[in-house]
Amino acid sequence: MGRTLYDKLWDSHLVKQNSDGSSLIYIDRHVIHEVTSPQAFEGLRLAGRAPWRLDTNIATPDHNISTDKAERGAGVAGMTDEVSRIQVQTLDDNCDLYGIKEFKINEMGQGIVHVMGPELGATMPGMTVVCGDSHTATHGALACLAHGIGTSEVEHVLATQCLVAKKMKNMRVTVNGTLGAGVTPKDVVLAIIGKIGTAGGNEHAIEFAGSVFRDMSIEGRMTVCNMAIEAGARVGMVAVDQKTIDYCEGRQFVPKGEMFEQAVDYWNTLTSDADALFDTEVTLQADDIAPQVTWGTSPEMVAPVTASVPTLDEQSSEERRKGLERALEYMGLEGGQAINSIKVDRVFIGSCTNSRIEDMRAAAAIARGRQVASSVKQVLVVPGSQMVKAQAEAEGLDKIFIDAGMDWREPGCSMCLAMNADKLGAGEHCASTSNRNFEGRQGNGGRTHLMSPAMAAAAAVAGHIVDVREFVGGDQ
Amino acid sequence: MKAFTTHRGLVSPMDRANVDTDMIIPKQFLKSIKRSGFGPNLFDELRYLDEGQPGADCSNRPINTEFPLNFPRYKGASILLARKNFGCGSSREHAPWALEDYGFNAIIAPSYADIFYNNCFKNGLLPVILSEEQVDTLFDEMEAQEGYQLAIDLHTQTVSTDTGHVFHFELDEFRKECLLQGLDEIGLTLQHADQIKAYEADRAQQHPWVFGAIK
Fold first, then answer.
1. Among B74, B135, B139, B184, which residue has the least CB neighbours within 10 Å?
2. CA distance linking residue B119 with residue B115, whole number of Å
């Protein structure tokens, strides 16, 4: 019987199969940031241990740093939030102490961990990649076995280069057909989450397959894999094809010359065999997917922009009715209200889901020659990394955003999780390109609507949620 | 790591599905570089009426009296009774740290998100999985009786009520053993250091680009 991509990645990293059903799995790449690592380094020291291998680790601060140009210019010492400053300083100190490669706060290469790893070529096809962050599945777009871990496991990987793991089940999500104009990778993954639910992928590794993903850019595949966790799956993956190899070639940490050719020969084997069996199969049609918007407090509370907020009497169970009632109350919405009638107070374009150069270009194509609606208090455009920022500025995208009345910021996680000063006020609605619309996620009492970069830019211009297909064509 | 063998304690409810880790411990508390002290901020946005700040004293903050954890009858609870997909979202281990620091030794729910479930075992916190029907039964009994307690035995993998129910639960053998003995997992893995080194040597031959690139 054939093997899935996940089976192949698992088999090639198996160090030891234990009799109790657990396994020891080797970790090729460990990505570290300031929030989930200090306790792991401390644990290492308390136990008198040292990192197993240094050339596997790559670190950068991203979660709680300021995106404000003036504050960022002052470096770590100039961080105004003292608790955050200590955390970023602790990352610097730990990396310096052990000799771990870190891209420091304002260094070229710094960025959101899941933007930085692939763009530097630190993550390559066939690797196991872990990070103390649930959106690590992003790296699976390069046919990696990548998933988030807790801080105890960060310490475990630092100390042993391995994890104790149990093999997951295989799920394949197939989307065939061609996406319509204005329909993006973000809409595809939101539609998938809407179909299988926020727990639909629990205990599974998901492979995204079908013509939609083959036709999609690598950055688009990253957006999709990034949100596998929002469907409950720790792991999301896309098989290797020529696009994967072209993406990797020439990046900083990718081998060159003969070793690159050797790597490519191996990478080309990283696809599921035709006769491989999946425990769970899910299928969607591209034609059925319209631009998506979340209206509630879980990513599964999602609908096409053309639809209305669900009503209580449509619910199939008491539990669903209670959940809907609570979500509507928190969001300040009425059942049956048209989604495109929801006004937005702030807009956030950024996060590990949607802050790469293609995302910036998609948002700029809508912003070009237009103005942010006067009712919108703030539009944050936060590039995912120093490299994305530099590229966007070279293309003049920053000027397009600024001319439209938007804020062009420094790279970081920003208002996706609002650990820094970028946050929503209570009751404010936000059109956001991030990944979670949980209660309070973007600020205490804040109301998040997840959508694509083009949709968020369109909402900024319109002052309310709007179908981006009304804007398609870009320039006015 | 703290071991878990048996536990008997007061039960308190978290009666909603898909409780995410942002709800368990909001982001502003993740700035701490410590592992302890998160208990006062567990479910911060639900427990208090104001916005919590890291390092601030919680003893004089306005309490949300409608949130069950604040009901006098649930004071001192050590078992949290919850609904499906508990702990979804962010991988933050601060969530089990906060639950443990508050005083919980075990959670009972029909299902958990994968990363949260895994994180619990690293912290001596037992996440018990029972069926939806069994969880419904426990919710009904708990609501009907003030001071409702449950007994959990990890050896026999059972949850027992004083009314005579004995519910069996499943968990992986290796997780059970680590928790029963409070084992240091890193120490256990390091016992296989030779096998890890042998794997690395073999892999470096086959896939040399995985090694040495990052300096």
1. B184
2. 6
